[in-house]
Design brief:
- With about 425 residues, the chain is of the alpha/beta class.
- Helices cover about 35% and strands about 20% of the residues.
- It has 15 helices and 13 strands.
- The strands form two sheets. An eight-stranded mixed β-sheet has the order 9-8-10-1-11-12-2-13, with helices on both faces. Strands 3, 4, 5, 6 and 7 form a five-stranded antiparallel β-sheet that branches.
- Strand 3 and strand 4 form a beta hairpin.
- It is globular and about 65 Å long.
- The chain starts with 9 loop residues before the first strand and ends with a helix.
Length: about 425
């Protein structure tokens, strides 16, 4: 999409409201959180744009944020997905060899008495532990378990990384957010050679339960980060260049290492925002300002990722999920659209969840999600019935069987 002489420049924004899609909820009068939230800015785009549904996760692939965001960023997960943790490792700055295997290490809250296997997976995020606290714990873990073959690296909040030299990937490992309130022993690592992972998880409970960081957290009534939970294994990814694919420069803005890592592997600029946490307490305003700044500095494209709806869903927090959507609309989308409306250039905006995270199950689902696509150069006739929501999207005849096909349409259509 190189610009021809005399052609107006186009700016592109993809805003991902992580996990925003849901199911109809009786307590909301049969509406979903998206349909309940007050979002005048996004719905204003919907009225003058296209709405529809898109399947972001191919059949047979787990509906993780790795596959979904690769798809939304224009990459077929069936071709490019090598595991979640290698993408996060790229964001942390870990230089993986071709024989290294990366694993995601959550520090989670286990609850209950008795042996490790009988404990319950209470909280996959340890109460959204701070990165500073987590760093102390991961350093203790690395001192205990690290060696010439295995090393641990601090990520953000509860999300960390383990690298195994000359490692294997053929293990059956379960994401902790998929088994909240479930017995740990029913979801321990499986597969030949996985015993060392299970042993580290068990021993980490003994190490972390009495750590000063967790003693202080418990004194404050906060969930302790009392165990490692290891999953998401994979080898070094090899994404094709985003610029070569679409001929535009771009940046990613996210508090989540996974999203940063996808962007870095695709050759996009990764932008850090002070106070960005990946929760409802994130710096929404700062993320909007960062997007505007990237456009001012000459970027053609910004991939703006907001994790808060997904985290609220994992916590079972319906009110928080609705409020997070309203904050995204008010604090982020409002100022970005105002800038784009007055920058003197045409622009396109695509708004969508990466996947469903229904409050009823508190984990990801692979069903299609709604999207809004607005082109300032070719607005549609205004239609008040079109909004950003599951019912409105499903009522449209516009459906993309693959997320990357929607992205191709967004940039090239």
């Amino acid at each position: 999409m190189k610009k021809r002489k005399g052609e107006r420049i186009m700016k592109y924004l993809i805003l991902v409201a992580d996990g925003a899609a849901d199911e109809k909820i009786e307590a909301l009068g049969g509406k979903t959180p998206l349909e309940t939230a007050c979002m005048p800015n996004i719905n204003g785009l919907a009225k003058k744009g296209l709405v529809g549904m898109v399947s972001t996760v191919p059949e047979g692939i787990a509906p993780g944020s790795d596959a979904a965001n690769l798809s939304v960023m224009g990459y077929d997960p069936r071709v490019y997905l090598t595991g979640r943790s290698p993408l996060e490792a790229a964001s942390i700055g870990i230089d993986m060899s071709d024989t290294d295997v990366a694993f995601r290490c959550n520090i989670v809250t286990l609850a209950g008495d008795g042996p490790y296997e009988d404990k319950i997976v209470l909280d996959h995020s340890s109460g959204d532990i701070t990165t500073e606290e987590a760093d102390e714990l991961i350093r203790a873990v690395n001192e205990k378990f690290g060696n010439e073959t295995v090393q641990f690296y601090t990520g953000v909040s509860y999300r960390h990384c383990m690298i195994v030299k000359n490692g294997e990937t053929n293990y059956d490992l379960t994401p902790p957010h998929d088994i909240l309130t479930k017995r740990a022993g029913d979801h321990m690592p499986k597969g030949e050679g996985s015993q060392f992972i299970a042993d580290m998880m068990r021993e980490s409970y003994e190490l972390l339960s009495g750590h000063p960081v967790n003693l202080r957290r418990m004194e404050k009534g906060l969930n302790p980060a009392n165990s490692l939970w290891i999953w998401g294994q994979g080898k070094k990814p090899a994404l094709s260049s985003f610029y070569d694919k679409y001929k535009i420069s771009g940046a990613t803005i996210s508090a989540v290492d996974l999203i940063k890592g996808i962007g870095i592997c695709a050759g996009l600029k990764s932008v850090d925002v002070p106070g960005a946490t990946g929760t409802i307490h994130t710096n929404f305003d700062g993320k909007g300002k960062a997007a505007i700044q990237q456009f001012k500095e000459g970027m053609d494209f910004v991939y703006l990722h907001l994790e808060a709806p997904d985290e609220c869903s994992h916590q079972g927090d319906m009110e928080g999920k609705i409020r997070s959507l309203e904050l995204i609309d008010e604090k982020v989308m409002g100022q970005v659209i105002d800038y784009l409306d007055h920058c003197g250039e045409d622009y396109k905006v695509l708004v969508l969840p990466d996947h469903q995270t229904p409050l009823s199950i508190r984990t990801h689902a692979g069903r299609p999600v709604p999207f809004v696509l607005y082109n300032s150069a070719r607005p549609e006739a205004e239609d008040e019935s079109k909004v950003f929501g599951e019912t409105s999207g499903a009522a449209s005849d516009l459906f993309f069987a693959n997320g990357y096909e929607l992205t191709d349409f967004f940039f090239c259509g």
